Request: fold
Amino acid sequence: MAVTDSCSDGTLDVAEVFRVVEESRSMVDHALQQTVLRNLKKRDVTSPAQLLSLSKLPEPTSTAISRAAEIMEASLHAVRREARQSQHPTDILSEEVLSMIANISGCLAHMLPPRCPDTCLVNKYRLITGACNNRAHPRWGASNTALARWLPPVYEDGFSQPRGWNPGFLHHGFPLPAVREVTRQVIQAPNEAVTEDKQHSDFLTAWGQYISHDIAFTPQSLSRAAFSGGIDCQLTCKNWSPCFPIQLPGNASSAACLPFYRSSPACGTGDQGALFSNLSQANPRQQMNGLTSFLDASTVYGSSPASETLLRNWTSAEGLLRINAHHSDAGRAFLPFAPRVPAACAPGPGTPAEARAPCFLAGDGRASEVPSLTAVHTLWLREHNRLAVKLKALNPHWSADTAYQEARKVVGALHQIITLRDYVPQILGPQAFQQYVGPYTGYDPTVNPTVSNVFSTAAFRFGHATVLPWVRRLDTRFQELPDRPLLQLRDVFFSPWRLIREGGVDPLVRGLLARPAKLQVHGQLMNEELTERLFVLSNSGTLDLASLNLQRGRDHGLPGYNAWREFCGLQRLETLAHLSEVLADTRTAQKLVELYGHPDNIDVWLGGLAEAPLPGARTGPLFACIIGRQMRALRDGDRFWWEHDPVFTEAQRQELQKHSLSRVVCDNTGLTWVPADAFRGGQFPRDFKSCKDIPGLSLDAWRETFPADDRCGLPSPVDGGDFVLCEESGRRTLVFSCRHGYELQGPEQVTCTPQGWNSQPPVCKDVDECVDPTRALCHGPARCLNTKGGFRCICADPYELGEDGRTCVDSGRLPRASWVSIALGALLIGGMAGLTWTVIYRWLQDASSPQQPERSGPGHGLQNPAFL
Reply:
């Protein structure tokens, strides 16, 4: 099919393509506007699904890409539908049509390779987006790109329909079981049945969740309403994209389904994608990772320039991160509050109903999900600021940006060390770690580090089976606090106020260090707090994390359990006997066969979770393979891995490997006793050491001397930007950059010569984001207003701005102008009425007075009363 000037032969002309895309844009934006309007009317969180959705809102860059991807996918479906109805039906779209749709929808800009910098910093600091890590493949591992596929997806229509989408569709001769039924029969267990893991502390679970949020975040569809018809996904049990509800068993006493929203597609996927594949073949729907794939502490710094700008303290000379301006934790910093107050975080007791509780702001939007996760985020905020202050003191000549980048570089290295050296070996066991990860042999530019769909959506969610149903807070002797009793999980979801009002970070960290994690045991894979009371609210139902995981795997088209075992070189399980042997539990194997009918149908997350753990491990052979392969790819495919020679000096590497999570705790809390290995279970005081005996890194290896014979000096601060010092060809060089919302005008790099700087420093000019209409920063009737370093969306009365800050929705009230008109009209009517009444009153008075004789001359008639 080609873009032509005529439709007579079944092809589409340019005008028709534009029409289709604009109709698709209107459809997606209408659904989005309905979603924002519903959220606006429900200022307080009214359902667990709304709570989950608000917590998973992507940052602005991801939001724009998700919207463009949904418009592109809807447009492609519409074009193919019209093509089939033409005289020459076809499913193959020409490159011209695809490129035009990609461009008009806004996707094309996000499908092209990024522009990589070419300065002396190219090997010094990674980009905040993760782009250009691999110079030959600059999109590998970058934020807002598609998750990697290690096996082709399995969609029921071959393109985008999830497994289980079509009622009656058979897989290997059997329908897929409802995920909620699988949860109830195989996964869930009473809280009282939980078995504790005597070998590992609860910090093992907390770190797994934290690291998973460092390397993967798949945004849900922006809309909470069906694109076709606009019906609220919480009000329908039918599959209307993006609604993919979780069906409940027939005898369920409550609603017939639980709401579920599909993940956003990645740009150029779901049907056919320009620049992504052979245009003669279908390109199935892929899902997007909103974060960088790398272990780079994006949990601390964000994965886009926009989020990084919000997180940094731009007034500090030390390159600090922002801290909470309203509260502190015994003199130590809390995370700052999010600038826009989402309804996702619950208010504390005694808070007025109209006061909306703020969530904490961090590099990942899920930081307020549970207190243990918030505590880990807080530790790293403090660690960055601690390092930045010390580094700046060692190197007074450093700019604020240099101190920030160097501290960020160290914090990222510590994330890598703690994860690969301390955490992953305890998850995989020694044998699997050696087999799948092995020793570091250097950066390999042929390795794609992009996080895979199966890792993010299935394998690394094994940690959900290690979550305890409660939260413990301990005193300085690592005993239960009398005034801080054990908390059920249902009472802590999205409750940052508990840290502020109930003792801060230290009691939580003590609980993570001194209490065991949950052991993964058949018959009790996941506790009721997660399967029955997830995000519990007093006025509504709950969600089920196990069912969400299963449904998400089907939404992403993940192949079944046996396909992944074959991928890993493991034996396919064809019989009940084989399944029983691998699971080491005949009852569970029997249940799986009864539910799924065929071993190939078993959802990969459940199959991997149910396998018997390897010796010394917390995963079975399948997840050990997937997690091990992914971790090796994250290490070997990262040009900024801490062990790669150009990244740090030998002296710096020796110092870095002395550091540990326990040392981070010592440096950033009030704890004075910690275990040597934060992930190993132990009892206080027997298995604890004084912080004085916990080694840490010395920053002397980062000391730099400023040349005594320098003739250039340092330039004045740059408004809206900063500079970083580096060496190129033996000469001192400054590389300038501008903050998000500004653009560089002048040379990016200036070099010190015997005569001084070879050029004048550049300036940072404010970018007018509203100039380019194709970016569509504000949706619907919203008007874009440029501000210094950013923009705002403005709504004309009676519209008001929704939760997303981009969409105008009808407030339901009359316009202010109407109120003014009404007031003026009322005033006019009142005035006329008053005047009329005055005339009538005087007339009545005159009519009721006695008739007076006319005065005919002197002495006749009444005299002046004043003289009576």
Summary: The longest strand covers residues 721-728. Residues 1-112+230-288 form one domain. The chain has a mean pLDDT of 85.
